[in-house]
Amino acid sequence: MDPRAEAFLRLLNIMDELREQCPWDKKQTLETLRPLTIEETYELGDAILEGDLDGVKKELGDLILHIAFYARIGREKEAFDITDVLNGICEKLIRRHPHIYGDVKVKDEEEVKANWERIKLQEKASATNLDPQGRPTDDQPSVLEGVPKGLPSLVKAMRIQDKARGVGFDWERKEQVWEKVHEELRELKAEVDANSARQADEIGDVLFSVVNYARFLGVDPDEALERTNRKFIKRFQYLERESQRDGRRMGEMSLAEMDAYWERAKNL
Fold it and tell me: Per-residue DSSP letters for 104-140?
């Protein structure tokens, strides 16, 4: 047997034993596992950003366990099992890669992404364009329906823009997007100067346009912001640690004194 298949079957067998014998595993539901899966996904993201490949391996194992757990519960509900899950993703990948498994020609990754979104929209249309009696209707699903409502706002903005780009609704050049960023900044400044109630709306527009510009640069804005968060934490903790060694207390130093430590932290 292929060692990959053997390892996966071993996991499924262990999952079955735990579900049938372990008091904790026996009590779990789709709903109780959901927050744990989200936590594991963030832990995987942390390991990736830290370049911890051993951590990536371990967190991937945790996520595969969760997939096996969900599939086991699906089997108990007679809704689906792990075979359905795996065959479903295999069939979807084949459908959405006609340039590999069909005769479609593409010139670059942008055409691949455009094909993916178009095929996905066609699939959703064929699945949803039925009335209660199963008859076809003329309703067309939105391109944006595939963006999960629960995504963090920064990630959601990026996915919305990607989806719109997939059907041709996008800027042509990054210079146009940069001008849009400046336009939104000017509008924000005007609302701030007027002390209006629209300041929050304009800040949202600025953030959305910056996400768009990052996308044109090929930068993941969520990852970029998280790296900046980590950089700030590292420098601030240096400030705390070194000032304490010097017998100083946070909250009692002047901003200029704290800035001196901050500048030193930049050189680490």
Answer: ---SSHHHHHHHHHHHHHHHHHHHH-B-TTS-B-S--
In this structure, are residues 166 and 143 in contact, taking their beta carbons and an 8 Å threshold? yes
Q: Quick one: which of 217, 216, 212, 207 has its CA closest to 185? A: 207
pLDDT of residue 35: 92
Long-range contacts of 220-223 (CB under 8 A, 24+ apart): 220/158, 221/154, 221/157, 221/158, 222/152, 222/154, 222/155, 222/158, 223/49
Tell me the backbone φ, ψ of residue 136, rounded to 5 degrees: -60, 145
The C-alpha angle with vertex 154 and arms to 153 and 155, in degrees rounded to 5, equals: 95
CB-CB contact of 40 with 32 (8 Å): no
Give Cα 186 to chain centroid, integer Å: 30
Q: How far is CA 266 from CA 202, 235, 243, 244, 254, in A?
A: 32, 7, 15, 18, 19
pTM (predicted TM-score):
0.69
How far, in Å, CA of 38 to CA of 106, rounded? 35
List the beta bridge partners of residue 130: 136
Mean pLDDT per block of 10 residues along the chain (268 residues) reads: 95 97 97 95 93 97 98 97 97 94 90 85 69 58 83 92 88 96 97 96 97 95 93 94 92 92 90
